[in-house]
Every structure is written in structure tokens, then in C-alpha cells.
Amino acid sequence: MAKSSARFIILLAIVLLALIAAACFAYPLYVIWPFRRQGPSELAMALGILQVRPWLSILSGALCLLLAVLAWPKIQGKVARSIAVASVLIAAAGCYLSRVNIYEIMFHPAGRPQFESAERAKLDSGDMVIAVRAGGNTRAYPIREMAYHHVINDTFAGQAIVATY
Description:
Elements: H1 2-32, H2 40-71, H3 78-97, H4 102-106, E1 129-134, E2 137-142, H5 143-146, E3 151-156, E4 159-164
Antiparallel strand pairs: 1-2, 3-4
């Protein structure tokens, strides 16, 4: 009985370490996801995880792999070994994905903007815009067009500008 409970604890530790490595990527992504309400405490926690996740994911992933390798002879059965291997793969994925800035991929700058006169623009009366005025010229960037980019690189009045929100 003692051997089986020790094996269970080792397997549980491997799974928990894998979940920690995966959570380093998944939790901030879930909380900071666009158009989702964020509470102040969960946002603070997600931003805190972003600060430590490179080291936390590597540490938990390395411990997961080390524990799985050292405990491999004691892990018996196809199901238990499959769980151990899956956990190591999940930990490796968490380590890798924690180093990918998914927001840069999701919110890449929009292509070159095209403009129409205010009279020809198809805006609803409730549409919000970011307006830029320089030297008597004005440009408006509709928020609904920026929703998935959040960044518009443009040249206006001879100057490179970035419109963002």
C-alpha cells in the first residue's frame, strides 16, 4: 500500500508541475483576453505571473522532466506512464508558449490605412473615433476598425504617427 501511494504522489507531483508550467501561459492569456471583463485582483495576478513566468515555467518544466525521468522505473502501467509523458509534453509546451508574445501576433499593426472624406465615410452616429489634428488637417481612425489591431501606423502632415488605444 505504501508503494502505490508513493507512486501516486510522484505522478501527482509530475502532473501538478506540468499544470504550473502550462498555467504560466494560459492564465495571463485568459485574463488579458480582449473584450473580456477583468477584475482588478485577477488582472494584478495575471500581470504578476507575466513578470515571473519565464523562470517559473522553466523551473516547473525542468522539475517535471527530472521527476518523470527519475521516477520512470517506479511508474508502472500504461495509463500512469502515458500521464507522465503527457505531463512532460504539457510542461514543455507551457515553457515554450510562455516565451511567445501572443498579443503581438493577435494585435499586429493594421496595413496601410486608406481614407475617405468625412462626407463619404460610412460611420454610424454612435461610432467612436481617434482623431488627430495637425496643421489644419484632421484624420479620424474608427475604433471599430481598430478593434483587433489596436495600432495604426500612418504618415500624417509629413510625420510618422501611431494611433493606438
